[in-house]
Amino acid sequence: MENRRQTATGTSKAFERKPYIKQEGERPQGYRKFQPRDDRFQPRNNRFQDKDERSPRRNGTYQPKNDRFQPKSRFTPKGRNFKPWEKDNRPRIVSDMQVTEGKHRGKYLQSTTSQKIRPTARRIREVMFRILFRRVRAGRFLDLCAGAGTVGIEAISRGAIIGTFVERSAKMCSFIRKNLESVGIKEGHGEVIEMEAVPFLKNAGKRRRVWDVVYYDPPYDANYDEVLNYFSRGVAIKPGGTLVIEHHAEMFFPEKFGVMKRWRVLVQGDTALSFYERK
Q1: Which domains are seen in the chain, by residue range?
Q2: Which is it for the CA torsion 121, 127, 133, 135, positive or negative?
Q3: Of 42, 75, 162, 243, which has the fewest beta carbons less than 10 angstroms from its beta carbon?
């Protein structure tokens, strides 16, 4: 085997480690200079503190700022006095007969136990007022077929100037007055009228009274045609105002009738809300 590597015939000398000879002024590897106790946590050479004084980057894009560590916009606190560690002390909403938002949030309202009265669910009220937030605030609100007045009282709680409650039942009108008093709404902000919807709209048309938002919530078996006839002429609704009709989800309402034009439909279970705007 001529090409095979031949082994060395003699044994190599034992490995000898050369002694390390320290040169004058040289520091051994791993050496750290002792720092006083006050300065031992400070970075050496001030590489963080003196960064602004360094020369700019090669591409010239480095611009030192004094407020380098400002949080991004999506992390900014919600308010000036916002404290995330504090709990929300607002009243919890657990019943349909509570005001869901506003200055009267959490207050309970009285109502009858009759099956003929169908109060608007709090989930529907929350979604509706989120949609109508800008229209309700500092506006006039008409609650037609008010029942116990839950929708109109919540509108006042959310910033409406005046709430008008129209109800044909004397018993329910007494509940509305008790609720206004228990919540703390003064007489000038809440107006209760015991009257049918059609005669009220007829008188409102003669007196030319208008509201920013009109909420119409009759019983599901009621006749809508006569009332919608007044709304088609713009009675009780100011130009640019909103009409909200609560009805069963299987009922059909036209997209346009008279001066009213539908711009949204909200369905929640068996209940639906149709939003119309007056031209």
Answers
A1: 122-278 (3.40.50.150)
A2: negative
A3: 75
Q: What is the pLDDT of residue 41?
A: 57
| Distance between CA atoms of residues 20 and 29, nearest Å | 12
The SS3 of residue 213 is strand
What whole-number distance in Å separates Cα of residue 261 and Cα of residue 256? 5
Q: Please say whether the beta carbons of 263 and 275 come within 8 A.
A: yes
Which two structure tokens, joined as six digits, stand for 254? 């036209």
Would you say the C-alpha torsion 48, 52, 58, 61 has a positive or negative sign? positive
0.85 cut: is pTM over it?
Answer: no
DSSP state of 39: T
**Residue 37 structure tokens:** 């106790």
**What per-residue confidence (pLDDT) applies to 83?**
63
Cβ 169 vs Cβ 175: under 8 Å? no
Q: Are 237 and 211 in contact (CB under 8 A)?
A: yes
Beta strands in 47-175 (DSSP E): 140-144, 162-167
- How is the beta sheet containing 256-257 ordered, strand by strand? 190-194, 162-167, 140-144, 211-216, 237-248, 271-278, 260-268, 256-257
pLDDT of residue 217: 94
If DSSP codes are grouped into helix, strand and coil, which group holds residue 171? helix
In whole angstroms, what is the distance from residue 247 CA to residue 224 CA? 10
Average pLDDT of the chain is 81
- Point out the residues of the chain with pLDDT beneath 50: 47-52, 55
